[in-house]
Amino acid sequence: MPARLFDSPEYPTISAGGDALYPVHRIFCVGRNYADHAREMGAEPDREAPFYFMKDAQSLVSSGATIPYPPGTENYHYEMELVIAIGAPAFKATSTEAEKAIWGYGCGLDMTRRDLQKANSAKQRPWDLGKNAEHSAVMTALVAASEFGEVGSQRIWLSVNGETRQDAHLSDLIHSPVAIIEHLSRFYHLAPGDLIYTGTPAGVGPVEPGDVIHGGIEGLPEIELTIGQPE
Ligand code: MN
């Protein structure tokens, strides 16, 4: 009888309201999905097709946590984002199927080692060291899509130590949640347990140990993160 050499971790979970937990399998992230953020990163906004990177599900952290300042960076950035939680299978989805595949939404922080992301981009290397840092996928509890309503003019904002740094509206998204699912499902069998971080507005910037981040999107629980000392 074959036996596992070590215990395999269970899928991490996030609250989905009441006693419900949403197990997280994969974390997809969309790059440069707000025009002003694309420009602040030195790129022209590309409206043709979204592009993606991924984070390990094990990098999930619940809102309210304190995370260590990560190793290997001197420029750790916040990115405030709307996150889609997939609730039904979607493969080569039509827009109607894409809409039905959305279980709900949460607030997320895509924490980023910006110096490593930029250095690797400049050498045409992948973003993993910059983006897939441990503890770098921060999430609030989810709210069902039926409760949240249409994605539109809701405000999305972030502050560091009480100072507003990001302030935009979900209507500024280049690719809407439905458009992202239509596109991403041409490449993957999306399924319950898949999260999609939809990109961040302009105003990204660095944090230091001791900083406290707050963020919000109208209709969703607020997100909070404290940056601890380096490990
Ligand atoms: Mn991001």
Question: How would you portray this structure in words?
Answer:
With 231 residues, the protein is of the alpha+beta class. It has one domain: Fumarylacetoacetase-like, C-terminal domain (Fumarylacetoacetate hydrolase, domain 2, Alpha-Beta Complex). The chain has helices at 35-40, 95-100, 114-122, 128-131, 145-148, 177-184, and strands at 13-15, 21-23, 26-30, 52-55, 60-62, 66-69, 76-78, 80-86, 102-110, 112-113, 137-139, 143-144, 155-160, 163-169, 194-197, 205-206, 212-217, 223-230. It is globular, with a radius of gyration of 17 Å. The model has no long low-confidence stretch (mean pLDDT 97).
SSE inventory with pairings:
Blueprint: E1 13-15, E2 21-23, E3 26-30, H1 35-40, E4 52-55, E5 60-62, E6 66-69, E7 76-78, E8 80-86, H2 95-100, E9 102-110, E10 112-113, H3 114-122, H4 128-131, E11 137-139, E12 143-144, H5 145-148, E13 155-160, E14 163-169, H6 177-184, E15 194-197, E16 205-206, E17 212-217, E18 223-230
Parallel strand pairs: 3-15, 5-11, 6-18
Antiparallel strand pairs: 1-2, 3-4, 7-10, 7-16, 8-9, 8-15, 9-11, 9-12, 13-14, 13-17, 17-18
Summarize this entry quickly.
With 231 residues, the chain is an alpha+beta fold. The protein has helices spanning 35-40, 95-100, 114-122, 128-131, 145-148, 177-184; strands at 13-15, 21-23, 26-30, 52-55, 60-62, 66-69, 76-78, 80-86, 102-110, 112-113, 137-139, 143-144, 155-160, 163-169, 194-197, 205-206, 212-217, 223-230.
